Amino acid sequence: MTDFILAGGPFMWPLLACSVLIITISVERLWFLQERLVTPNGLTNQIVNLFNKNLINHKQSNEIAELSSLGFLLVSVIQYKDLPRQNLESKIEEKAIEVKFLLERNLNMLGTIATISPLLGLLRYCCWNDYSFYRPYRDFWGKS
Q: What is the b/e burial string over 63-77, where b = at least 16 CB atoms within 10 angstroms of the residue's CB?
């Protein structure tokens, strides 16, 4: 494996770095976006039942908010329940934007790296192959 990287020349190191970054970001996104961490089963019913029985305290609301993105939004709805509908909608929209930002973290970087990697490969092919193909001929003719 190291022979391929060394034979590829200096353009292989950025390609290798891009590959490692893509794998790392993909694994992190797969782990973070598991359904059980974003929208756990039965969470909505559990929170509605606790709210109807007035059993939600500050500690429970913090735990629910840390449990999942949906829990964070539902706790925010309960927190702002006394506001007028218009203000409630705007507050929940702000919280939803926060959750969206967290869920989409590193996706722009992933897209950028996925765009750059083939271009680096093409650059490597154009520049390094010319050097490696013509080098023996230059040595043969005595030109360096």
A: ebbeebbbbbbbbbe
Distance from C-alpha of 132 to C-alpha of 6, rounded to nearest angstrom: 13
Q: Answer for the pair 47, 74: CB distance below 8 angstroms, yes or no.
A: yes
Total tally of structural domains belonging to the chain: 1
Query: Under 8 Å CB-to-CB from 24, ≥6 apart: which residues?
Result: none
Of 4, 35, 40, whose CA–CA distance to 19 is shortest?
4
Distance of CA 140 to the CA centre of its chain: 51
pLDDT (tens digit per residue) in 57-106? 888 888 888 888 999 999 998 889 899 999 999 999 999 999 999 889 88
User: What whole-number distance in Å separates Cα of residue 52 and Cα of residue 47?
Assistant: 9
What Rg value do the Cα atoms of the chain yield, rounded? 27
Domain housing 29: 2-141
